[in-house]
From TrEMBL:
Residues 1-439 form the Biotin carboxylation domain. Residues 584-665 form the Lipoyl-binding domain. The keyword Metal-binding does not apply. InterPro entries: ATP-grasp, BC-like_N, Biotin_BS, Biotin_carboxylase_complex, Biotin_carboxylation_dom, Biotin_COase_C, Biotin_lipoyl, CPAse_ATP-bd. Residues 115-302 form the ATP-grasp domain. SMART domains: Biotin_carb_C. CDD domains: biotinyl_domain. It comes from the Bacteria. Its cofactor is biotin. This is Biotin carboxylase N-terminal domain-containing protein.
Amino acid sequence: MIRRLLVADRGEIARRVFATCRLVGIETVAVYSDVDTDAPHVNEADYAVHLEGNTPATTYLEQHALIAAAKRAGANAVHPGNGVLAEDPEFAAAVVDAGMIWVGPPAATLRTLHRKTETKKLVAEAKVPVLPSFTDPATVPGFPVLIKPDAGIGGAGMRVVRDAATLAEAVASTRREVDGDVFCEPYVPNVRHIEVPILADAMGAVVPFGERECSVQRRYQKIVEETPSPAVDAALREDLCRAAIVAVRALGFVGAGAVEFLLDSDGDFWFLELTPTLQTDHAVTECTSGYDLVRLQLLVAEGGSLPMPGPPPIRGHAIEVRICAEDPAYAWLPSAGTLHRFAVPDVAGSFRPLPQPGLRLDSGVADGSVTGMHHDPMLAKLIAWAPSRQEAARMLASALARAQLHGVVTNRDLLVRTLRHHSFRAGDIDTGFLDRHPEVFAPLLSSVDAVRLSCLASALAGAADRRASAPVLGSLPSGWRNVPSGSQTAVYDGPTGPVEVGYRMNRHGELAGWWVRSVDPEELDLAGLGQEPVDEHPPIVVVSARRDRVVLNVQGIRLAVLVHRVGDVSYVDSPEGSVTLREISRFPLPAPEAAESSLIAPLPGAVRRVLVVPGQRVRAGELLLTLEAMKLEHPVHAPSAGVVASLPVHPGAEVDTGELLAVLDPE
C-alpha cells in the first residue's frame, strides 16, 4: 500500500495528485526549487523538501536529489507527474531500486517507448495501422515529410519538409536541436489528433475511456481538448479503442496513458505514439466518465485490479483549454512576471470529477504567483462539462472572457475567439486550425469605442483612488472647482501606443465632457498635451466611480468596468474585453539609450545556441542565436544585413528582458 507519496513535479499536476491523495488517505510530499518556496503545491502538501537551485536540471529533473528527498521525507512511493521524468526509464528503475513504489509503467516498457521507431515497429507487427518511418533521409520516397526526434516528447524538434533540396539541412538542424537520432514519416495534412486514454492493470485488463480530440495546437502542442470528438461516431470509436487495446498489449504497458492517433477526413487513422503519463487533458475524461483517474492510477501502482469491466459510458461533453503565459500575436512569446490576480468566475470545483455539469479549474498558480523562464508556460486548465458540445463551448468561452488575468500576457483572448469561431462550433477542426484562421489572434477588446471606454474608466478610477487617499477635503469630487476651468488628463501606454484621456467635471461632480486620442510617441515630453480637442465623444453619465469599479451609462445602457491598479499599471476588465494600461509619468526620468542596431532580449531566458561570431557578415533575417524560455526555443534574427559588431552573450548565459544580446553595424 502507498502510505506516503512524493510527487516529483510541480504546479498543477502536483496539486491534482495531492487532491486525490487527501481523499484516499495517502500522505503527500512536495519538492520545490528556490523560486517555488511559496508555490501553491508546496503549501498544500503534508511535507515539503527543498531542492536547491532554480533550473529544472538542478531541481525537478535531478534524479538523485529527488530520490534522496523521498527517502528523507519517509515516502514509500514516487509519482513522476506528467513531464519528462514520467517517461524516463532510468528514473523509474532508480525509484524501484531504492525500494519505493513507482507510479507509472515498468522501466522496461518505458525503454521501448523511449524509441519511437521501435514502438511503431512493435505496434505495426500487431496489425495496428502505422505510418512508415525512414531513418535514412536518402530513402524518403516522397514529400512532404515530417522530421521527428526518435526520443523526443512534447513536439520538440519537429519540422515539415516539402522538397528534397532542404531535407538534409532540416535533418541536421533537428539533430543539433534534440542532440539525438531523428526519423522521417509522411506528413499528412489536415488531420485530426485523436487520442484514446487508457488504464491497464498488471492482471491484463485494459480499459479505454472513449477518445479525446486534441487537434487545436500550437507548435505541435495542444491548447484545446475535448471529449467526445465531433468527428468520431460509435463505429469509429469502437475501432479506435480496439486498436488502442492491441497497441497497449503489444507494448506490455501497465498504468495510465494515452494511445495517440492521426485521423484523416476519410476516417482512416494511424498510430502515432503511446504517451505513458497521466495526460494534461485527463480532466475532460474524468468529467464525461465520472471516474477519478488519479485514484485508478494509484490503485494500479499498488498492484490492484481495475474496478470496471469495460469502457464507461460517455456522459455529456467536456472541453478543456490551457491558459498559458504567452503572447500568441508575437510568435507565442512567453510572458514572465508576477501574476497579480488570477480569478475565474462561477467555478464549481477543482482537481476532482464534478458531480454535475459546470466549470472546473485545475490551476498551478494563485494571486501573487511568479512565472519564471524555466518552466512550462501553462498557468491552469479550465474545463467546461455540459450536456452538449455547444453548451460546453459557450459556458467555457463566457467564463474565460470574464476572467481576471493580471500581471502577465496570456493566450486567453485567442482561446475565447477559438471557442466562439463558427468553424470550431461546427466541429470543423484539425491540426492546421490556427494557421487557417488568423482572425482568432485578434484581441477581444478590438473596437475603438471599447478601448476608449476602458481608458476613461481607468482615468476615473485613478482619480477616485487619489481622492480616497487625499489628506484634506477627500469627500470633494476629483477636479472640483468653484469656477469650472481646465480638464483633467492622463496619458497611458496602451495596446496600440500612447493615448491621452481628458475629461471635465461640472460643479456637481458630473462628467461634462471627455475624449481619448492617440498621441505621437515623439510628443511624450508632454508638451502641448492637455489641450482639448474640438470634437468630444458622445455624452456619458458616470453612475459611480470607485478605485476598483466604475459604472458608466452609455446612451441609456449601463456598463460596469472593473479596474485593478498595481503601481502605475491599470488592468481594466469589462464585458467588452480586457486591456492593460500603463500610466505615463508627466515627469519621466531619462532612460539610457541603447546603441543603434542593438538587439535586446525580448524575454528572460537562457542563451541556448549562438550561431555567429563578432566580425561576421550576416544577411537580413539570418538566425543569430536562440533563447530558451518556458521549455520553448525562441529565435533571434538579424533585422537587416550587416556585420556583427558586438556579441556579449554565450551559450548557457542567462539574460533578462531588455539585456543586450548583440550589436550589428548595418550595411
